[in-house]
Amino acid sequence: MSKTTKSTKTQQLSKEQLIEAVRKKKECNARAQAIVESLLERNINEDEFLRKLKDINQCHYDDIVDERNILRLCSYPLCDEILENVPTKQYQISTTTNKVYDITDRKKFCSTKCFKASEYIKSQMLTSPLWLRHQEIIPEFKLLKLND
Ligand SMILES: [Zn+2]
User: What is the protein's known function (predicted)?
Assistant: First the structure.
């Protein structure tokens, strides 16, 4: 028996499919929000952290960085440092390159190592809608090893 051509009319969602899509979207957003909140703490487990990354987007990761900064924690979720003596200036001049750097983002981290590790994670994050994730190949997230 020849199979009928696979549905090419994917645009045409039935009402039930639409309801399901909305439900899925809500569910994904709620889960992402819970993940963001769970990563605003200290003593976060590495494996757990890596597992959670596939259910959030880059924008959620940005939220984590900002929220941790508000809480005065190093913004890298796997770091337990509390930020003290955060420079108030926005720019810094490098004595080696004589260049002026905007340190707004760097200031959210206790060290350059944490900053780089965080940027590394963020670069791997997915940007596609969370509710379409099940159709996607999820990459394996890797940590930048801090102890060099
Ligand atoms: Zn740190």
Answer: Putative RNA polymerase II subunit B1 C-terminal domain (CTD) phosphatase involved in RNA polymerase II transcription regulation.
Q: Residues 35-73, buried b or exposed e (16+ Cβ, 10 A)? A: bbeebeeeebeeeebbebbbbbbeebbebbbeebbeeeb
pLDDT of residue 2: 46
Q: What is the mean pLDDT of the chain?
A: 88
The pocket of ion ligand 1, defined by CB under 5 A, consists of: 74, 76, 79, 81, 110, 114
Query: pTM for the whole thing?
Result: 0.80
Going from the Cα of 120 to the center of ligand 1, the distance in angstroms, rounded, reads 14
Instruction: State the distance from the centre of ligand 1 to the C-alpha of 28, rounded, in angstroms.
Output: 29
| Ligand 1 centroid distance, CA of 23 (Å) | 37
Highest mean pLDDT among 39-48, 86-95, 138-147: 39-48
Give phi and psi for 93, each to the nearest 5: -100, 125
